[in-house]
Specification:
mainly alpha; about 5% strand; globular; DNA_glycosylase
């Protein structure tokens, strides 16, 4: 393991370098990242934030998370699905979020796809049906892939259901964030805390 894979914080806890840089990232890593999310609204929020993160830093998205929640009605898919051109123009003027027309349009489109999925088991069933049969056991960051056969299958299933901004790399990041795969390094203090993998 390289000396930058895990950093021991002042609290004595081992975290990967990406999670050790700021208080915001440490808090996110310690309390949320990799914990199971199985409700529709929570999953819609994670999908939406992953879409906004594309090409940008996750810390930027986290800094604007409160703004995103206010702008997108706490990621209530029924309310977001009703957004029209007036709301899009207001969002493009909103300095509290990442102002990108394509990403805003994707979130609205995805909200409508979430509602359509309710007749077919729902978003949570679709996403969690792609949980891999076995978990990863990375000792180094280099051992963590950016995509997997399951994330590729999930991407295809979401696209078929009408979602956009859901490529296999984004889907793998989502799977990590919601605990479907545990990519905490083996010596991280968070390894195994999700309860998903025995």
């Amino acid at each position: 393991m390289t000396d930058t894979d895990l950093i021991i914080g002042s609290d004595g806890r081992a975290r990967p370098a990406w999670a050790a840089g700021t208080d915001l990232l440490r808090h996110y890593y310690d309390t949320e990242w990799g914990m199971p999310v199985r409700d529709e609204q929570g999953l819609f929020e994670r999908l939406s934030l992953e879409a906004f993160q594309a090409g940008l830093s996750w810390e930027l998205v986290l800094r604007k998370r409160a703004g995103f929640r206010a702008a997108f009605a706490d990621f209530d898919p029924e309310r977001v699905a009703g957004f029209g051109e007036r709301e899009v123009e207001e969002l493009l003027e909103n300095r509290e979020i990442i102002r990108n027309r394509r990403k805003i349009a994707a979130v609205i489109r995805n909200a409508r796809a979430v509602l359509d999925l309710r007749e077919d088991g729902g978003l949570a069933d679709l996403i969690w049906s792609h949980q891999p049969a076995t978990n990863l056991a990375p000792r180094t960051l280099a051992e963590i892939p950016s995509r997997s056969p399951e994330s590729e299958a999930l991407s295809k299933a979401l696209k078929k259901a009408g979602f956009t901004f859901v490529g296999p790399v984004m889907c793998f990041a989502l799977m990590e964030a919601i605990g479907m795969v545990d990519t905490h390094l083996l010596e991280s203090h968070r390894r195994g805390t999700s309860g998903v993998w025995a």
